[in-house]
Amino acid sequence: MSFFSCCTSPQEKNNKNSSKKNIKNNRDICFKSDSGKRKYLEEEVTKPGNGNITSKIFSYHELCVATKNFHNSNMVGEGGFGRVYKGRIKSLDNKVVAVKKLNRDGFQGSREFLAEVLILSFLHHSNLVNLVGYCSEGDQRILVYEYMINGSLEDHLFELPSGGKPLDWNTRMKIAEGAAKGLEYLHAEANPPVIYRDFKAANILLDENFNPKLSDFGLAKLGPTGDKTHVSTRVMGTYGYCAPEYASTGKLTTRSDVYSFGVVFLEMITGRRVLDYSRPSEEQNLVTWALPLLKNKRKYTSIVDPLLKGNYPMRGLFQALAIAAMCLLEDGSARPLIGDVVTALGVLSKRHVQVGKQKHSNETCDEHGECS
C-alpha cells in the first residue's frame, strides 16, 4: 500500500466537519502587532463573561500562593516565554498545574501571550495541552496549564540523567503519531487553519502514559484561507527546525510545520539534536548529516539511536525513515500533508504492536529495502 494514500473514513470526515462548526467563530482572530488589533485582543482576554474564552482568570495573588511565590524549588522548566513552575490551585481542589510566567526581559511578550490564550481557548484536542487559565493583572502575564508529569520529549531523548531509561521504539512511534495528530487538528480542523511554527521536542509534553501534547502556541499563526497559498510573515521559530523556504522567503504554509515534524521525527529515530556543536563539523547539523545516509538503505542502521541497542523492527525503521525523508523534502509542495503522515504513522504503530515481541535479529533487509 502507499504510505501516503488517503484513508479517511466517512465517519471521520463527519467528525471533522462537526469540529469545524464548533470552532468556526475564530476566523476573526488576527495576531498582528498594530495597536488596533492589540487593543481588540486585550479586550477579548479581559472581557468579563466572554463566552469564547473558556479558561479561568486567576488573580496574581492566587498564583503566588499556588507556587509559593514562584519559589525556585518549584521551577520545572524555562523557555522563551519565561520560567515554568509547578503549583497547586486551591480553588480547583488543589489541582496540580504548570504555571508559566512571562519574563518581561525575554524574547516573547504580550503578543505571544495573547495569541496563546486565544488559540488554546478556542481549540481543544487530546494532543494539545489544556490551558487551565491565565492572569493578565497589571503588567503580569501568566499562563496556567495542566501539569504534564513526564516533562518534554526533549527530556527523554537527549542527555539522559545517570540511570535514566531511554524511550523504547514503540513509545517513540506512539509519541510521533500523537504529535502529528495535534498538528493535523491545527491544519485540517481549525477554521481558519493554524500553523504551529515552533514544532520541536521541547514543545512536546508527555503525560503519565507518554501521550504527547503540543504546548507553547505563542508563535502560532493563522494559515492561508480561500485561494491564498501562504501567509507572509516575519521568520520566527527555532533555528534548525524551520523549513528552508520559510527561512529564506518568510512565506509560511502548513507544509512548513511538516518539515519541522520531519526534523523532530529524525531526532527521535537518531537520538541526536538537530544542532550539536560537540560533534565533528560534518555531523553538527542533523539534517545535513542524515540526508545522504537516507539515500543508502545499507546505512540506515548506522543512523539509529545507539540507546535502542538494536531493539527495533527493521521494517519499521525503513518505513519510519521513509516518512522522515518525505517530510524533509526541499520542495515544500512535494511534502505530504500532515494527515497523510498521521495515516502512515498509524499503520506503522499498529504494525509495531504486532511485531514488538519479535527479536530484531529475526528480521533482515537487503540493500533495496526488502525485509523478511
From TrEMBL:
<feature type="binding site">
    <location>
        <position position="101"/>
    </location>
    <ligand>
        <name>ATP</name>
    </ligand>
</feature>
<dbReference type="GO" id="GO:0005886">
    <property type="term" value="C:plasma membrane"/>
</dbReference>
<comment type="similarity">
    <text>Belongs to the protein kinase superfamily. Ser/Thr protein kinase family.</text>
</comment>
<dbReference type="GO" id="GO:0004674">
    <property type="term" value="F:protein serine/threonine kinase activity"/>
</dbReference>
<keyword id="KW-0067">ATP-binding</keyword>
<protein>
    <recommendedName>
        <fullName>non-specific serine/threonine protein kinase</fullName>
        <ecNumber>2.7.11.1</ecNumber>
    </recommendedName>
</protein>
<keyword id="KW-1003">Cell membrane</keyword>
<keyword id="KW-0808">Transferase</keyword>
<feature type="compositionally biased region" description="Polar residues">
    <location>
        <begin position="1"/>
        <end position="12"/>
    </location>
</feature>
<dbReference type="Pfam" id="PF00069">
    <property type="entry name" value="Pkinase"/>
</dbReference>
<dbReference type="InterPro" id="IPR008271">
    <property type="entry name" value="Ser/Thr_kinase_AS"/>
</dbReference>
<dbReference type="InterPro" id="IPR000719">
    <property type="entry name" value="Prot_kinase_dom"/>
</dbReference>
<keyword id="KW-0723">Serine/threonine-protein kinase</keyword>
<feature type="domain" description="Protein kinase">
    <location>
        <begin position="70"/>
        <end position="355"/>
    </location>
</feature>
<dbReference type="InterPro" id="IPR011009">
    <property type="entry name" value="Kinase-like_dom_sf"/>
</dbReference>
<keyword id="KW-0472">Membrane</keyword>
<keyword id="KW-0449">Lipoprotein</keyword>
<keyword id="KW-0564">Palmitate</keyword>
<keyword id="KW-0547">Nucleotide-binding</keyword>
<feature type="region of interest" description="Disordered">
    <location>
        <begin position="1"/>
        <end position="21"/>
    </location>
</feature>
<dbReference type="GO" id="GO:0005524">
    <property type="term" value="F:ATP binding"/>
</dbReference>
<keyword id="KW-0418">Kinase</keyword>
<dbReference type="InterPro" id="IPR017441">
    <property type="entry name" value="Protein_kinase_ATP_BS"/>
</dbReference>
